[in-house]
Amino acid sequence: MTARFRTGNDAMGPSAAWLAPAALFLVFAFVVPFAALLRAAGSAAPGALARELAGVWTHPHTRRALANGLALSAGVSLAAILLCLPPAGLLARRRFPGRGAARLLLSVPLAFSGVIVGFLAIVMLGRVGFIPAVATALFGRPLGAGLAYALPGLFLAYLFFEIPRAVLALEAAFARLDPELDAAARSLGAGAWQRFFRVTLPALRPAIVATFATTFSVSLGSYGAALILSRRFSVLPVEAYQEFTAFGNDAGASAMALWLAAVSIAVSAAARRAAAAGRSAGERG
Amino acid sequence: MRRISGARLRSGAAALLLVLLLAVVAAPLAVVVAGSVLDPRALGLTSETWEKGSHHATWFSYVLSLYGRHLARSAVLAVCVVALAFAIGAPAAYGLSRRKDAAARALAVLLDVPLAVPGLAVAIGLLLAYPRARASGATLAAGHLLYALPFFVRAAGNALSGGNVPELEEAAAVSGAGRWQRFRRVVLPVARPGLLAGALMAFTISWGEFNVSFLLATPTTSTFPSALYLTYTTNSFPVAAAATTLFLAAAVPALAVLQRIASPEAARFGEAA
Hints:
Chain A contains 13 helices and no strands. Chain A is an all-alpha fold and 285 residues long. Chain B is an all-alpha fold and 273 residues long. In chain B, 78% of the residues lie in helices and 0% in strands. Chains A and B meet through helix 2, helix 4, helix 5, helix 6 and helix 7 of A and helix 1, helix 2, helix 3, helix 4 and helix 5 of B.
């Protein structure tokens, strides 16, 4: 409890020791395991790493699983942004009764794993789902029955999962927009659509790109919904899981894990760069 | 005239989309929660016949008898993850908010990288690196913490550098308080809402985590989301609905408090979750 006066040191900020626990944890919980993935994929022989990595792409089964995941994640992310952009703007700019409840409800899927989302899809669009039951009562036909197990169901399940991420991120971006810009455009005689496409959308571009990266990464890495729903439509995490647990193929599973990590990190890095470029060029410049 | 109708049309379309999104999220949740207390035949969800006297209350107690251990483990693990996030993350957030050197920048990047790495990749890596730590659940906790920590540090960092915290700290320094004393007596109390927001995010992430847990968990460490997978694949609808409702019973209040105390932080949750 000795009170010391250390102006010189304090002006520099706290010592690096404050960062040490987090740095140590990240090294042991992330860097070392990542190195273990590289080692497991390449331990068999010299050049094995490249061969295993190439094998994921040349083997039609795993390539299809990877391509499935990429297409699904990109499509779901685009759809989530398109669907969530207008409501996010509404939530950010208007104060209306029930706004808090609406935001809470839209944030609930944040806590879900893909498995729960898969179950919800079956509840709504399974062979004896709620929507077919309602459709039978109304139109006499079980519309949408079994849809959960086909590609549209998987798409909707992943979309459900990304709604909170897209809405909350885009709402925050709308809230950061400078209202003066819109007012200036209005005073110059720009119409509502013109202002949206010429002023609002360019200013939101960095946030849209960042949101795409987030939803893409989350979709690519999530496999619970695919595990529950898809019989034929496989994604790479499911393949890696089976390779690791059922076949004990550490090298193959590690190669798939590295593919997933590499694609996801590359998309995030590209998005981060694009967002930073957009931000420095557009928002403040 | 046309300008006004354009703006009207736009906000009308936005309101319609908002209602659509709300319906898409609310409808399945409502059906599941209703299905956990009502006869599923009333919802048109099954053609199975239920034994007379099979009471809805028993679905919850049945779930608890099957998966009570998983539920308890998930709660303990989530609390441990929150405690670890606090112990490791609060000092890191403080350091990051006051230092702008290369070490701080490197740590900030390293904190965020795991968010872009699929949970299954992290799980396989942890398993390969520490095969013997699996049984204790240590790798499971590490995997959860890896995804919870960046959110905790960000929420805490905003709280620690926002408002008048730096000025208050300076005043305490001038009055002769040392670094640790200032952190404990000045910075932490002022940053309490942000720290609470970070803690709730860490709890929510751990509570729902499946991507890492499904591979890392053993029968003795397996958590509730893995139990949900078992329920969905082996049990009937009312049991699955009751289990899902139990999951929601902890997740929704956490999200509600989070939104109440810190909407900006909650928004960031969406930005990078």
